[in-house]
Amino acid sequence: MSLVGPRVLAARLTFDVLLATLRTHWLPCTLFMIATCLIRSYRKRVGYQHKGRHFVSQTSPQHSSSFFGPFSALWSPISQVDISSPSEQVLLPRRTTKRNMRYQTSARQFKTKKQIVVTTETPYVIHKTTQPYDAFLVLDLEGTCELGTDFNYPNEIIEFPVRLLQWKDRADDGTASTLKAIDEFRTFVKPTWRPTLSQFCTQLTGITQDQVDSAPRFSEALVKLEAFLVKNGLIDVHTKKRLKRFCWCSDGPWDIRDFFVKQCFISQVEMPEWIRGDILDVRSVVQQWRHSQNGLSVQYPPYIATGIRTPLNISAQLNALDLPAFEGRQHSGIDDTRNIARIVTELARRGVRLMPNTTIYPGRRWRWMGKHGQILQDELP
């Protein structure tokens, strides 16, 4: 006859007690097990979504739940901190997870980890970024158009607005974050191939026939624009070479890539050196900035180097940057230019490095282009 040890007897007694409890109170025990599984699943989901970061709840400590007692930690995965002032910033260390514990060997290394700034006013920490360009020329050209045509149509420029932006706080090391509107240029342009505007064009742009009839031709408008650039110290008065490093900006690539290149061919004017080169497609920058916000902390503003063209109009860009609604009339060249300038200014304020992202080819040709500015009617779209 074998003797049973006291540990085995204690284990059997504990098992019998648990079994009797389950038989008598099976419903509360089942609910408790289900609740425990749900809580564990919820905590894992919260930890995955926030990627190991601490977030701040505006609930004060005295309102924390005390009903659950020792189980309150299960129900409250978010730490509660009292924020008395809405503009107060709270510094919280990065939450220790398996991912960021990979290379931690001591508590000293954990203390040197970067901290996350949590603020109740804005989700972005604005700081200066190195900006390689001195000025930005924002433009939005308006051209002749017909109902049912696309960008392959031989559009002629009928409005040429430009808004000049320069840095207000640029340091010696090239860092800056605040752009300011310095000057503005605007002129209507008289078309020559089809001087009569279509009804669709007038309704779309708001430009009347009288405005273009009394306007200068494209070659004369370029002379006025050169005088504007000389006045602001951007190009040399004699050589027309650049004196400052400035970048042309537009909503999409169509203004310079299509409208300006077509107009130079129709007017038989060589594309000036001061507008050649790559441009900044603002629409692409805003779209890529939106994509870059997913998974990035507030200390690291996006670096924009290349563009991805997507259907995002000016109003949608303003909304994406939490700016006030479109000001003025849409498809008006001067109003579009001013709103695009607002977008560029906001991107700079958020720390985006503004650089060209679209290549322009002055020698681009369309099928309707003949010799010496002639437009082939049979090749029109």
TrEMBL record:
- Is the keyword Hydrolase in the record? yes
SMART domains recorded for this chain? EXOIII (SM00479)
UniProt KW Translocase keyword:
no
Q: Which Gene3D superfamilies does this UniProt record tie to the protein? A: Ribonuclease H-like superfamily/Ribonuclease H
- InterPro entries in alphabetical order: 3-5_Exoribonuclease, ERI-1_3'hExo-like, Ribonucl_H, RNaseH-like_sf, RNaseH_sf
Q: Where is the Exonuclease domain?
A: 135-353
Q: Which UniProt keywords apply?
A: Exonuclease, Hydrolase, Nuclease
GO MF annotations in UniProt: 3'-5'-RNA exonuclease activity; nucleic acid binding
**What's the protein here called?**
Exonuclease domain-containing protein
| Source species of the chain | Pholiota conissans
